[in-house]
Amino acid sequence: MSPNQRDEADQEKALAGWREILGAEGVLHTPAALAAVGRNTSAFPPRDVTAVLRPTQAAQIPDVVRVAREQQVPLHPVSTGLNWGLGSKLPVRPGSALLDLSGMNRIRYVDARGRFAVVEPGVTQKQLADHLAEHAPDLVTNVTGSSPNSSVMGNLLERGTGFRRHRAEEVRGLEVVLGTGELIRTGLWSGADARHSHHYRHGLGPGLDGLFVQSNLGIVTAAVVDLLPRREELRLLMFSFSEKVLPGVVDAVGALFTADILRSIVHFFNDKRILSMTASTQVPTWTGVVALDGTQAQVQVAVQEARGPLAAVGAAVREITAADAAGDEADPLITAMFDVHSGRPTTAFLQGLHQATGATTVPDAATLDALDDSTIGYLACMPVVAVEGATVRDLMATVERICAKHGIVPALAINPMNADYAESVINLYFDRTDPQQTASAHACNDDLHRQLYAEGFRFYRIGIDAMEFMTEQDTAPWGTIARLKAALDPDGVIAPGRYCPISG
Ligand SMILES: Cc1cc2nc3c(=O)[nH]c(=O)nc-3n(C[C@H](O)[C@H](O)[C@H](O)COP(=O)(O)OP(=O)(O)OC[C@H]3O[C@@H](n4cnc5c(N)ncnc54)[C@H](O)[C@@H]3O)c2cc1C
């Protein structure tokens, strides 16, 4: 038998094995199903996929892994597969089966007193927000600006960020199937009969949760996530400023975090990014937004304390209350901002993206989520930067120079998370039907990664095509990570190449 014939025979055996576990309806192998995996808004070259697997229960996953090991066909797990800008649902390397976990979508448990939820991979942000509104109205979830139908889990495992805080910091425990097929639970969740298992996220011994975030060491089948208490009062501070004063605003925000006046992520958007969130054409160069919540008295003090330093560096500051964001007359951008900061997912940003890239009418809900099937091209480059005005100014100078060289106006966000670091997002939009624009956007994205890296900037998330370049650099202790990989996934069957230079 030739190697090709042997590969095909292994694949056939794998498909048969998976059908026994998942039923015929849980194993898709039609050309249409396989081609759909390849379509992606970033116009990354499609990777060949052997099948799409659709489990419905965590108990099926160890057997799915067993078959993958026996037949040497790797698995690429996704939760809802909306990792837009970084690869959508595409694996890094060809030859995997897509493990689509969206059908495992139970909210297993919400503890209103302990303020946590136990969610499976397919649980969407809308599903969790709706569930809390009905069953635990004193709690809210930290939501992103992505689709209401995107998952809590996939965002967490990509180390994504909600409007209120970093998602990975909300983890209180994970349930994971390793590449060996063993199912483990982290921290105190691993044991039985404790009075409480999720009040202390670390457990005893080395903490393992971080091993499974931006990793290919396991398939996560459930997560315990922290929920936020609904406070008596929530207001937004919105402030606008010219790019000239951006460094001063960054330093002022850093000082406000240090003084504990700000306690929630700040977002700065440039005008191109704002235009992709709203139909408005009258926008200042940069817009900042941050939530202040607590008792009425606490919020009042925080507003007063934050206003002065921001105004002193040249920002025009507005205070937004719930009443300003409500009703038909309200500015849609302000309503959307209020929604996401209050734990209500919105389609507004996705709508804005469609409109900013050419849609003349508001697309319906199904069209909004079908970004991968649209003509919209979208790539994201994500450097992390110190909250230091001079460094942010240097970052901007390089980003603007490179984007200008490639003829692209970037949609930028700089999001100080605390006094120490800001996550920045450089969004490149293009028309996927135009080969010239597509090539320029990819060249620009590649150039941005290489040039920013050369200038000492590092990245907090990367797309599937930047994986190889970035994992060749000393950005992580890759040798140690490879030894962990060999122990936890000895046959290299989980997501080869995902945030890992060595595995198969
Ligand atoms: C308009 C717009 C706004 C956006 N706003 C935000 C934002 O505010 N914050 C933000 O972070 N992102 C944002 N995004 C990017 C992206 O859409 C979100 O991060 C989204 O949550 C990711 O999709 P997902 O939840 O379907 O994750 P998935 O695509 O399912 O997962 C992401 C990756 O995690 C891994 N993974 C997923 N599930 C598992 C599992 N169970 N076990 C092991 N590995 C797994 C896979 O490698 C997968 O590729 C935005 C995108 C757009 C277009």
From TrEMBL:
The protein's Enzyme Commission number: 1.17.9.1
Protein name according to UniProt: 4-cresol dehydrogenase (Hydroxylating)
Cofactor: FAD
SUPFAM superfamilies reported in the protein's UniProt record: FAD-binding/transporter-associated domain-like, FAD-linked oxidases, C-terminal domain
Pfam family, one: FAD-oxidase_C
Domain FAD-binding PCMH-type: 44-230
Organism of origin: Streptomyces zagrosensis
InterPro entries (UniProt xref): Cytok_DH_C_sf (IPR016170), FAD-bd_oxidored_4_C (IPR004113), FAD-bd_PCMH (IPR016166), FAD-bd_PCMH-like_sf (IPR036318), FAD-bd_PCMH_sub1 (IPR016167), FAD-bd_PCMH_sub2 (IPR016169), FAD-linked_Oxase-like_C (IPR016164), Oxid_FAD_bind_N (IPR006094)
Keywords: FAD, Flavoprotein, Oxidoreductase
This protein's record includes keyword Phosphoprotein: no
GO molecular function, one term: FAD binding
